[in-house]
Design goal:
Layout: H1 6-14, E1 19-25, E2 28-33, H2 38-47, E3 55-63, E4 71-79, E5 84-92, E6 97-99, H3 108-119, E7 122-124
């Protein structure tokens, strides 16, 4: 499809070999980028004064179980300066990695960790890529389409947490209630 918006036209001219597909329908613009160039395209979208997509609204993934490459990593960008939105997708196969964008947007740190935890997609050069929602011993990635609904997780030993003084119930006892230790 030929680009119809100025944003897609600029991207087509600047990254001719990196753009796999563009789509624009009723103001909803999407560009699909090769995974090797996605970091450069996102940096250009953020830094170019004609575009200024300075806000990474969301970063997520889509599992296309039967397709190769299997996953889409989806970046939702917003330009606060021009009040414009753009969806950028890149395709990643199982076991492959895509470059982290934590150097472009700090919020990507937690969003990439969530995608890693839920889908198992790795991000190269991420400063702290570890689980964020599931516990460390959890096996598998629950948002993959082949994740077993009967997936039983290994039993964990009971963990004793250090006592948090702010959650101590005696600390918040009303002053008119007698102290059990002194009565």
């Amino acid at each position: 499809m030929t680009p119809t918006s100025p944003v897609l036209t600029i991207l087509q001219e600047r990254f001719r070999g990196a753009i796999l597909e563009t789509h624009a329908f009723r103001g909803d613009e999407t560009v699909v980028v090769r995974k090797e160039q996605v970091h450069a395209v996102l940096q250009f979208l953020r830094d170019d004064p004609r575009l200024r997509f300075n806000f990474l609204m969301d970063l997520t993934a889509v599992d296309w179980l039967e397709r190769r490459p299997r996953f889409d990593v989806v970046y939702h960008l917003y330009s606060l300066h021009y009040n414009r939105r753009l969806r950028v997708k890149t395709q990643v196969d199982d076991g492959e990695a895509v470059d982290s964008v934590t150097d472009l947007w700090k919020v990507a740190n937690w969003l990439e960790r969530e995608v890693f935890d839920m889908f198992g997609i790795r991000f190269r050069h991420h400063p702290d890529l570890r689980r964020i929602l599931m516990y460390d011993e959890f096996q598998g990635h629950p948002l993959r389409k082949d994740y077993s609904l009967r997936g039983e997780q290994p039993r964990l030993p009971y963990r004793i947490q250090p006592r948090d003084p702010w959650r101590d119930p005696d600390r918040w006892r009303p002053s008119n209630e007698p102290d059990p230790e002194t009565t």
